[in-house]
């Protein structure tokens, strides 16, 4: 298992935007399926977005049209662009390599006025 390090979380007003980044130390990053998940206290961790090595993506219904996952294989980094943020997007966001079953430490996103 490699190391995944998220960054980019913070406090944002409703309607605002944030971009999360996840840097991977895994040599096989370019062929890994990468995902973003989120979790709020008392609830199960839920899938937000996935991207496989071919660039195919999948999104939770709640974020479709607002969030976008992308990757830069040269930088071994996966991104989550979050637009039109809502109060209910508040959570700890985790990056994961589904291929190696690795997880990052999480980054807090808080949407508040």
Tell me about this structure:
The chain is mainly β and about 110 residues long. It has strands spanning about 5, 10, 20-25, 35-40, 45-50, 55-60, 65-70, 75-80, 90-95, 100-105, 105-110. The strands form 2 sheets. Strands 2, 4, 5, 6, 9, 10 and 11 form a 7-stranded mixed β-sheet that branches. Strands 1-3-8-7 form a 4-stranded antiparallel β-sheet, with no helix packed on it.
What does this entry show, briefly?
The protein has 113 residues and is mostly beta strands. The chain has strands spanning 4-7, 10-12, 18-24, 34-39, 46-51, 57-59, 67-72, 77-82, 91-97, 102-103, 107-111.
Task: Throw out a few tags for this protein.
globular, 113 residues, seven-stranded mixed sheet, mainly beta
Topology readout:
Blueprint: E1 4-7, E2 10-12, E3 18-24, E4 34-39, E5 46-51, E6 57-59, E7 67-72, E8 77-82, E9 91-97, E10 102-103, E11 107-111
Parallel strand pairs: 2-11
Antiparallel strand pairs: 1-3, 3-8, 4-5, 4-9, 5-6, 7-8, 9-10, 9-11
């Amino acid at each position: 298992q490699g190391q995944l390090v998220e960054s980019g979380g913070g406090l944002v007003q409703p309607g605002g935007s944030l971009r999360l980044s996840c840097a991977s130390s895994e040599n096989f990053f370019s062929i890994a399926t990468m995902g973003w998940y989120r979790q709020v206290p008392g609830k199960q961790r839920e899938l937000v977005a996935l991207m496989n090595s071919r660039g195919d993506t999948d999104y939770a219904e709640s974020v479709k049209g607002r969030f976008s996952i992308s990757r830069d294989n040269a930088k071994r980094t996966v991104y989550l662009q979050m637009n039109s943020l809502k109060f209910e997007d508040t959570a700890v966001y985790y990056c994961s390599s589904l291929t190696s079953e690795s997880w990052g430490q999480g980054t807090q996103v808080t949407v508040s006025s």
